Amino acid sequence: MSAARLSLTHLTIRFGGLAAVDDVSLSVAPGTVHGLIGPNGAGKTTVFNLVSGLLAPSSGTIMLDGKEIEALPSWSRAGLGLARTFQNIRMFAQMTALETVMTGMHLRMKAGPVASILRMGRFRTEESAARDRAYEILDLVGLSQSAQLRSGDLPYGDQRRLEIARALALEPRLLLLDEPAAGMNPSETQQLEDLLGRLKQQGYTILLVEHDMHFVMRLCDEITVLNFGRKIAEGRPEAVRSNPQVIEAYLGTRVAKSLAGGS
Amino acid sequence: MPEFVLPEVIDDFLFTYQNLVYSLGIHGLLALSMYVVLAVGQLSLGQAAFMGLGAYASALLTLKLGWSLPAALAGAMLIPAAAALIIGSPTLRLSGVYLALATIGLGEVQRLAFVNSDFTGGALGLSGIPTKAGLVSIYGSLLVALVLLVLVARSKIGRAMEAMREDELAAGALGINLPAYKLGALVASAMLAGLAGGLNAHVSSFISPNDYGFDAAVTILSFALLGGLGSPFAPILGAVILTLLPEVLRSLANYRGLVSGSIIVIAVMFMPRGLLIWRMGRIGVSSRRPS
Amino acid sequence: MLAQQLLNGLVVGSTYALFALGFTLMFGVLGVINLVYGFYLSLGAFIALFATQAGLSIWLALPAAALTTGVIAVVLDGLLLTPLRKAKAPELSSLMVTLGGTLFLYSLANLLFSTDIRRFPVGVVDATAYDIAGMRVSMTQLLIMGAVVVMVSALLFVMRGTRLGLGLRAMAERPDTAELMGVDSASLVRLVSLICGTLAGACGVLIGLNYNAIQPYMGEVMMLKGFAVIILGGLGDIRGALIGGLLIGMLETLTAGYIASTWKDAVGFVVLVLTLWIRPSGLFGRLAAKRA
């Protein structure tokens, strides 16, 4: 039990009278990729916001490495090793890609304000080391060619990978990826899948929200399915794929959408 | 200190334009004080109030206690810093709107306090402040502030500040302690504005409670918005332009409010990065990869 | 004496409540602090002043000035805020734009009308006073309280009892969802500006009547009290604005009566800072924690 990297117990949040996340429990084992899927509005991003500290739960607990974190602000959670990306990319648009990744190392850099401002030796050593490490991370995500470009000017797919790089700079114990493949073309998606595969090999623990079903099935060790804020299934990808409740949840929305004239 | 003699041309120039030269430096400091807060994505409308607190504190310290200029200026920085802590601590945990509203209030209540207290000279203000400050103290302060802010910008602190301004949520998710940074920025900003106020009091010899109101606060904001936030040089450029403009176009002096107001509207809507769009790098060492 | 003070405080407080109501509604539904709001108050007062000088009775001048202000508010909102709303600019950008706009408008009014205090023509302000249980109540005070009660009830009825109110509340809760539900946000924005401008305009006329003094910067003074009221009441909280307005009005009158009238204008700020320290979510604790 305490071996879980992340465990949510009876997690619930209500907006007004409506429960957006309703009594959800799940646990993510270290070194695994765990998928969180479900139709639109199922509460996946809300779970992410609860875990990363942008929302406070109405009830339930969130444990990272056995430590309760639900009362901590987002920056303290980052200090415990929680990193995330966002569904709608959140770039520091004016910064270069290199600066963006170095910002992710904020917590790792120990030089105090005085040392930093007065540019003491320690600061310079640390700053050079951070820059070198940032280049390595950019290599890993395949962006070192763009290190000096403005983040906001990068193509969409690159921005998504830069967001992952920024999160990796934290050296996270748990990486939350919110729809990393959203809006990507097939070749970008392939690149991303390769990247996530490499991260998995390196032993990163990942909680992943994603719409692209094939992507999730190929990558995840374990999957949890949400619908209307409730957990309706969990298990290994093949088991989840054939779960009738899951099929109904997805089919249901598709039918409803076509009835409403949407796409 | 050895006496040195300025060439006559410069001497004449300084004599004629002394006030203007002083205001340029003081406005530069005020613009920097605004920059520090805007740089972390917050809006303070208390810069004029902090300036007023600094002016009154230092003037009273020299007039009533006979303190030396450096000591009085230290007082001019500490008193506004305390005010910034009182206002900032509760508000900076909330959305940015709260700080803006609370600091507008600070300006007004401070005016009221100065007007109604005999100790501060009431509505007439304080006069006979020794004119101990001058070119060296004003431009020396400006230079020190500028250098410090450039160094801050090029460190992890500068990166954290820019990250907060660009996207507070993402910055928080990277472990940047948002309330601590915001409070630090507000206090530093109050100290800079207080210093500007103290220097101003000690060159003009007279201060009145109505100099530090809403209009002054908005004018200071217009310095920074016109110049931009890409580097600490930008807000100073804004201050220089907006200080010289009414001098060059005398007829504009009566329309100061109209000008500052329109500049803010135009800057926010059409040139959100200001006039000086050059952005200073946020890395303290060479950004190139060692081969 | 105390009863008389409280009554005067109630009258002043009801104008604060009315003013803060539009201010907080604007924040609650549109999500912006519109600093031009204070100027609408001055505008309403001036329009009513000119209307009565032209011979209109106050009974017509009041609604006419209020509605005209409302229409101008719609136009100004369209010029200053709609472009930013479309660009999804950060919250503080809209605050800054309205700040610049405010300075511009006040400076303009100052150039046009000067800061001299103007008064309504003789006879507009009814000086008749009645003796009720030992308290003096003037006709003007009755008019003010009557007008405030009528407008507040109308607004509460709209917010609580109509489909329109439902749409407004939906927009305040979750703007994107409201749009999905088929709420036409652009026309709601205009409607809210109209309502808020009208409230501020009416409030300006009433305050002008209460003190019989009108000058361009009257809205700026009021704005500071408005901040205190909406923070005490909780940003976006209608009930909080009403009760906060009455409370601050009465506190001010008591301060003027028992401490010193010069300190009355500091009451709002002291309340504001205390609220932030003790209970930042305001009286009824609806924390504005809308994020992500």
Key terms:
heterotrimer; A: 263 residues; alpha/beta; Rossmann fold; 2 domains; 6-stranded mixed sheet; 4-stranded antiparallel sheet; 10 helices; 10 strands; 40% helix; globular; C: 292 residues; mainly alpha; two-stranded antiparallel sheet; 3% strand
Please tell me about this protein's structure.
The complex is a heterotrimer of chains A (263), B (291) and C (292). By secondary structure, chain A is an alpha/beta fold. Chain A folds into 2 domains: 1-81 and 173-263, Rossmann fold; 90-171, Rossmann fold. Chain A has 10 helices and 10 strands. In chain A, the strands form 2 sheets. A 6-stranded mixed beta sheet of chain A has the order 6-7-8-3-9-10, sandwiched between helices. A 4-stranded antiparallel beta sheet of chain A has the order 2-1-4-5, covered by helices on one side. In chain A, a hairpin with a 2-residue loop joins strand 1 (6-15) and strand 2. Chain B is mainly α and 291 residues long. Chain B has one domain (23-270): ABC transporter involved in vitamin B12 uptake, BtuC. In chain B, 69% of the residues lie in helices and 1% in strands. Chain B contains 11 helices and 2 strands; from the N terminus they run H-H-H-H-E-H-H-H-H-E-H-H-H. Chain B has helices at 8-38, 47-65, 69-91, 96-116, 135-153, 156-166, 168-173, 178-204, 214-227, 233-248, 256-270; strands at residues 126-127, 206-207. Chain B has a two-stranded antiparallel sheet with strand order 1-2. The longest helix of chain B has 31 residues, at 8-38. Chain B is globular. Chain C is an all-alpha fold and 292 residues long. Chain C has a domain at 18-216. Chain C has helices at 2-30, 37-53, 58-80, 82-86, 91-113, 139-161, 163-173, 175-180, 185-211, 218-233, 238-258, 267-278; strands spanning 129-132, 135-138. In chain C, a hairpin with a 2-residue loop joins strand 1 and strand 2. The longest helix of chain C has 29 residues, at 2-30. Residues 287-292 of chain C have low confidence and may be disordered. At the A-B interface, helix 2, helix 3, helix 4 and helix 5 of A face helix 5, helix 6 and helix 7 of B.
